[in-house]
Design goal:
single chain; alpha/beta; Rossmann fold; globular
C-alpha cells in the first residue's frame, strides 16, 4: 500500500468498524486506526481492535485514554444495567447510548487527520440495523463534515476532511457479506455491550441480538465466543 493516501479509521473492535477498516483498505487508503479507552464496561473490544489491526496489516494504531465515566449517563459508562431482550423496533433511544460519543471520537479523529495530513476519516456508523443512536444518522455525519470545514486550518485552506460512512445504508446482513468478501475475520471482533469476565458475549443485549440474527440470515455461525448460545 506504499504511496496510497492515509485515512483515519475509527476502530472499536466490533463487527462494523472491522468491516469499515477493510473497506478503507479496499478503496486504496492506508489506514491509521484510532481507538478509545473511554471507561466502557466492554473494554475487551480494545483487545479485539488490536487483533483486527494486526490481521489487516495496519501499521499505526493509536489508542486514546479518556474517561467518559465522569459524565456517566449510559449503561456503558455508569453503574446502570445493560438492557437485555428488549424490542428492537422501539423509537426510544436506549440507555446504552453514550452522550456525544461519536462527536468526541470524530473530533479526535479530525485532530489526528490534521497532524497526519490526511483528508479522510472513516467511521462505521449505520442507520439501518442499529440501536437508534442519534449520532449514527446521515444528517449528523453531513453536519459534522460541514463543521470540520469551518473548525480546522485544513478546512480554511481548502483541504477540509471528508467523513466516510460506508455502512450507513447497509443492513447488518449486507455488512457481514461485504466483510466476508474482503476477508474480515469476524472471530476476532467483539460487539457485546455486557461481556463476562472471560470476554464472552452475553447474546442478549441489542448489539448481540442484531449480530446473531444477521449471521443466521447469512447462513453462518457467528465465530465470536458467547457465554450461552
Amino acid at each position: 500500500m506504499q504511496g496510497s493516501k492515509s485515512a483515519i479509521v475509527l476502530l472499536s473492535g466490533g463487527l462494523d468498524s472491522a468491516t469499515t477498516l477493510a473497506i478503507a483498505k479496499a478503496n486504496g487508503f492506508r489506514p491509521l486506526a484510532l481507538s478509545f479507552r473511554y471507561g466502557q464496561r466492554h473494554a475487551i473490544e480494545l483487545d479485539a481492535a488490536r487483533e483486527v489491526t494486526a490481521a489487516q496489516g495496519v501499521a499505526e494504531h493509536t489508542i486514546v485514554d479518556l474517561d467518559l465515566r465522569v459524565f456517566g449517563g449510559s449503561a456503558l459508562t455508569a453503574d446502570i444495567a445493560v438492557p437485555k431482550d428488549r424490542g428492537l423496533d422501539s423509537d426510544e433511544i436506549p440507555i446504552t447510548y453514550v452522550p456525544a460519543r461519536n462527536t468526541i471520537f470524530l473530533a479526535y479523529a479530525l485532530a489526528l487527520a490534521e497532524v497526519r495530513g490526511s483528508r479522510d476519516i472513516f467511521i462505521g456508523v449505520n442507520a439501518v440495523d442499529y440501536s437508534g443512536y442519534p449520532d449514527c444518522r446521515p444528517a449528523y455525519i453531513a453536519a459534522f463534515e460541514k463543521m470540520a470545514g469551518l473548525a480546522t486550518r485544513a478546512g480554511v485552506e481548502g483541504g477540509g476532511a471528508r467523513i466516510h460512512a460506508p455502512l450507513m445504508e447497509l443492513t447488518k446482513v449486507e455488512i457481514i457479506r461485504r466483510g466476508l468478501a474482503l476477508g474480515v475475520d469476524y472471530g476476532l471482533t467483539r460487539s457485546c455491550y455486557d461481556p463476562d469476565e472471560a470476554g464472552r458475549a452475553c447474546g442478549r443485549c441489542d448489539s448481540c441480538r442484531l449480530r446473531l440474527a444477521a449471521f443466521e440470515r447469512v447462513g453462518r455461525p457467528d465465530p465470536a465466543p458467547y457465554a450461552d448460545r
